[in-house]
Specification:
The chain is an alpha/beta fold and 281 residues long. Helix content is 25%, strand content 15%. It contains nine helices and seven strands. It has helices spanning 9-14, 40-43, 66-69, 90-99, 119-127, 140-152, 167-176, 221-228, 243-247, and strands at 109-112, 132-137, 160-164, 192-196, 232-237, 258-263, 266-274. It has a seven-stranded mixed β-sheet, sandwiched between helices. α6 links the parallel β2 and β3. It is globular, with a radius of gyration of 18 Å. The termini are far apart.
């Protein structure tokens, strides 16, 4: 699947950042058909960033949960080995997309800052809520998987512009030097929402009862909010994240909605819906 405006050599020379165009599936893009094909570190009991170890670690393995991650997995869904650990389960992705349905109608564009294998991008595209989606992913093989998976789910190619690159670089350029971006990537900031499902790591992430978002790695709360604060943004965070730190992002006199997303009665993660121009403190 390509973006609405394909990448070409001429555009590369003129613009700082261009749409990715259609990327080929690589050897790292895999569709496992049986557990015997799955590498040990996926098949064995490995702590999942989305499933708390005290309940899910001993009950499920990544591959066994493939239909919760992508219900159309058997149609040819591909993931890189690393992508298994960061995909938002499809029911959660759909719930987040549904929760944004009634958001400010003047916001018509969504940036998926960490697109991964495409789970959230697909849900947003199929929701019908957005006029345009910019989906950004640093790893080319993972981005190729996302494009493949979006095609399987019937996402309109004109709906999503895929970007192979760093979302922080893109947002910095969008705010400070928009004229250097390919025209397909120049957005009205006032009409844009950012969704960010960053990697979750850092000391205490899996063990602390309340997770300190200042220590999250490789991007902490301050870095994320600092990059997105000019736009409404949704942060998809560990379920034990410190609510007080999130509340500190609220503008004067306003509150930040925080939603816990559950599957089979257990919380998998939380999302904080943060308005534009909030001040980090």
């Amino acid at each position: 699947m390509g973006s609405a405006t394909p990448h070409d050599d001429a555009a590369s020379e003129v613009f700082a950042i261009c749409p990715a165009g259609e990327l080929p599936l690589t050897d790292e893009c895999r569709h496992y058909e049986g557990k015997h094909e799955v590498p040990w570190d996926i098949q064995k009991f490995v702590i999942n960033d989305l499933y708390p170890s005290d309940l899910w670690l001993t009950l499920f393995r990544y591959f066994s949960q493939r239909y919760s991650i992508f219900s159309w997995y058997d149609e040819g869904v591909c993931l890189t080995d690393d992508a298994w650990f960061g995909v938002t389960p499809e029911p959660v992705a759909n719930a987040i997309a549904a929760d944004l349905q009634d958001s400010d109608p003047s916001k018509t564009v969504l940036i998926d800052a960490f697109a991964g294998a495409g789970g959230n991008t697909i849900a947003f595209a199929l929701s019908g809520r957005w006029h345009h989606i910019i989906a950004i992913e640093r790893d080319a093989s993972t981005l190729a998987c996302a494009q493949n998976n979006a095609r399987i789910y019937g996402v309109d190619p004109a709906m999503v512009t895929w970007v192979h690159g760093d979302s922080f670089d893109y947002l910095h350029t969008l705010v400070n030097r928009p004229e250097t971006l390919h025209p397909a990537l120049r957005l009205d900031i006032a009409a844009t929402v950012v969704f960010a499902s960053p990697p979750w790591g850092g000391p205490g992430y899996r063990s602390d009862e309340i997770f300190d978002l200042r220590t999250m790695q490789p991007y902490n709360l301050e870095q994320l909010h600092g990059a997105y604060h000019l736009m409404d943004h949704v942060l998809f965070l560990p379920r034990t994240s410190d609510i007080r730190q999130i509340a500190g992002l609220a503008p004067e006199g306003r509150k930040i909605p925080v939603v816990q997303y559950c599957m089979q009665g257990a919380s998998k993660a939380m999302a904080a819906f943060i308005p534009a121009k909030a001040t980090f403190r």
